[in-house]
Amino acid sequence: MALLNISSPHSHKGRSTRQVMQWVMLAAVPGLLVQSWFFGVGVILNVLLAIAGCLAFEALAMALRKRPVRFYLTDYSAAVTGLLLGLSLPPLSPWWLVLSGCFFAIILAKQLYGGMGFNPFNPAMVAYVILLISFPVEMTRWAAPAPLAEAANVPGIVASLGQIWGGNLVDGYTAATPLDIMKQNTGLLMNDLYQQEAVFNQGSWAAAGWEWVNAAFLLGGFLLLALRIIRWHAPISMLLALVVMSALFNDGGSSQSHGSPLFHLFSGATMLGAFFIVTDPVSSAVSNKGRIIFGASVGVLVYVIRSWGNYPDAIAFAVLLMNFAAPFIDYYTVPRTYGHKKSTPATRKED
Hints:
Blueprint: H1 17-27, H2 29-39, H3 42-64, H4 69-73, H5 77-88, H6 95-108, H7 123-134, H8 136-139, H9 157-166, H10 178-184, H11 190-196, H12 198-201, H13 210-226, H14 233-248, H15 261-265, H16 270-277, H17 288-308, H18 315-332, H19 345-350
Helix pairs in contact: 1-5, 1-13, 2-13, 3-5, 3-6, 5-6, 5-7, 6-7, 7-18, 13-16, 14-16, 14-17, 17-18
């Protein structure tokens, strides 16, 4: 049988942007469901409103730029941004807070830079940080996990919609997060703190509710790794750096302790950040070595800000700081082109 002798370039059919984004959304479903189980239906309502808001602002921007609206909406990048933003916000956030975040994410952090593929910063994290700095009260109204919330005060769908659109705060439903409790502790030994605070003594290895939410996002992250939607370099290096930092500075349980490695791994938005935010292909480093440096730096910054900064959960701040540094990392970690000598900053400058 005669074989065709065809010269390069040869076509290779990989996953499209639409398929990648669809898999990312599917992988986040376990985390979304578990988070909704422990923190109420407001989580799902947040996500739906955030996705709708991001799609609306994306459509508006594309129409103003005279671009094909349907084409850009169906790549699902705006939907993923809405999903991540909705998961990051406190349950039962007022509608205006969610839609403001959608505006900041799509218009300010994405479209003003040129749209998909040109944004230097993660859009969802830009929106989260702006909201946190601008509306600290609304952004710290996290619900108590289901095992600790007063059963009579856990809102259903109707009450949740009333809270979102009417702003009537449900008494007995909000509570400090485990990271906030740990950060505010100044006088209790770890054993005493864990006995006094129900969120700790009802948890299995970290904190009630939060540990299972992080486990669910970890499961989704494993799915993305197995399907090769994301690479292991950034998320694994971030988690390892966080473990190393929390182990080095873990003093064994004094009143000045910042928590154990397990506590930091399974509290806050650690796993969501590691597998769904740090792995953003646009705003992170591009080479494998660069991704390792990027992820490890995020892990170190997360622990530093959590322990000695002003904000208990530091994922957004750490990611944005490293988004600033990503071009610098890329500059010094450019892989050698096959058949050529390794490029150095000096030779690149001469070119």
